[in-house]
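REVIEWER CHECKLIST
Item 1: Sequence provided? yes
Item 2: Single chain? yes
Item 3: Sequence as submitted:
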Amino acid sequence: MTTLDPSSVLAQRQQRLARPTKATGWTSWLTTVDHKKIAILYGSTAMVFMVLGGVEALLIRLQLWRPNGTVLTAATYNQLFTMHGTTMVFLVGMPMAVAFGNYLLPLMIGARDVAFPRINMLGYWIFLLGGVFLYSSFFLGGAPNGGWFGYAPLTSMPMARGFLPSHGADFWAIGLIMLGIGSVTSAVNFIVTTLNMRAPGMTLLRMPVFVWMIFIIAMLTLFALPPVTAALIQVYMDRNFGTHFFDAAAGGDPLLYQHLFWLFGHPEVYILILPGMGIVSEILPVFSRKPLFGARVVVMSGIAIGFVGWGVWVHHMFATGVGPATTTGFGIATMAIAVPTGVKIFNWLGTVWGGAVRLTTAMLYSLGFIAMFTLGGLSGVMHSIVPSNGQQHDTYFVVAHFHYVLFGGLIFAIFGGFYYWWPKVFGHFLSEKMGKVGFWLLFVGFNLTFFPMHIVGLQGMPRRTYTYGTGHGWELMNQLETVGGFIIALAVLVFIVNVVASRKRNDLAGADPWDGRTLEWSIPSPVPVYNFLEVPEVHAFDDFWHRKYTEDEEGRLVRLPSGGSDAGEHPEGEHSDGSHIHLPSPSYWPLVFAFGLPMSGYGFVFKNWWLVGVGVAVLMFGLTAWLVEPDTAQDDHS
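Item 4: Structure as written out by the authors:
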């Protein structure tokens, strides 16, 4: 006889009683301030940009299939590799982290929304419009072509001097400033939500590891973006107003740009990878049926990475002649940051060791994350050794390293997170069979693409070059890399087909299909607009797990008949459908406000000051209307 878990009964009751919202159809997505809908918008938009960035990568690989390739011209190649890097870092990696954080952080801490719902939506519109602004450069004279790092003085010299004679560098600088504004809105929202909106009893050390990782990257974002924003403004000023921040002949300093950029750029690596670490830290315990080994140590390691990450940026600059004292200090810091990273790896392995492991698709991606990230970390430590760094600098060895860290880390974790939380977000499962096919395609294609880059890099193949000559012995490795790239594309296609097919199949999921440990699994799937009918009270780390299980005298798990919670005892009464819960009303004004930024951006790119003025006017109009619009309660949860 099956025993019903009262917490599941409550979840089903909430699902049944949740009434439809007033704002329906596609227009509701334009005005929504629901953190869950905004998360879906972030994730789906980032997937579109991932496909665009992948197409750019495939064109690059086709060009390098053989020596003296003619698929792309040098000018087109420069635009594609610049936009590929820019897309994957700023339009895929960071927004994906925001998507997961937006959906899960409030649920995991027992909150009904983020602290600033309308600012949350503003951040999405800035991200979307900033991405469109960058990609519109392909049709307005040429895309950015100075590398995703945009090194001065190449990007900062005026067009009249013959350096990058298109507006691509201006699009790049202004576009990244726009995207930075959107990132700051998300960071502030996550910080305030985490600190101020936790459920009763949810102390900092009872927060899930994923919440901690999102909180840490929010802090990193808040402090990392100002240096690069200053550098981007200086690039624009040098190009368009005759300043000489980075012009050595006029007393400027090109190395100043590198310091400003990498002071952002290396914390940015952890901004991208820490969310993946958080995702994996939630998946591994569930499918090992064990608590996360040393959970507090994992949290402290994440905090340590956040601090030490500020002291390693110069290892990107060892080849610039910064001096032995500087290279020694930053080399030691680069070695030191491997310690908390390695601690996490041993914690994850300790979680799996001896567990009742279920090799679901999400678990496979998490294990793949550990393996690929470990390889990337090992090659990263090599960069702390100054002579080795000098040999590897600007070769394909570095390309292999950061793809093992960021693709092998973040992207594997993202796909694992998709398969794990998809039932919670949409109420139905993705196909496990197709998911496992997609995993093995991605695993094989990834290693076939990027592992040979270590070899050709050590053989001296330079990065950022659109062709290479015969006689170097690089042909076979480049052909393997190209084949691997297309296998990766096939893996992504399998995922997209899985999404479409699963929606038609509609294999419904309950509130807690994986036997989860954290609070989001205590409420219906998909989640009601108000999240929690009653704000939960937390008594322990992994509180929802402890509501369901206890241990017998021999340490074996025993399911509690009552579910370990009083959640099922709430009576069905006047407000059992959540109608008593105040929710912020939807608004068009974040979208109107956001439109002012690209309008001003186009004005700055083409020096059309009238257009700049119109953009500023739209900003002020949208902001004023936003401030005077009442935040009314909606009885129908709209």
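Item 5: Key structural point noted by reviewer: Strands lie at 549-551, 557-559.
Item 6: Recommendation: ____
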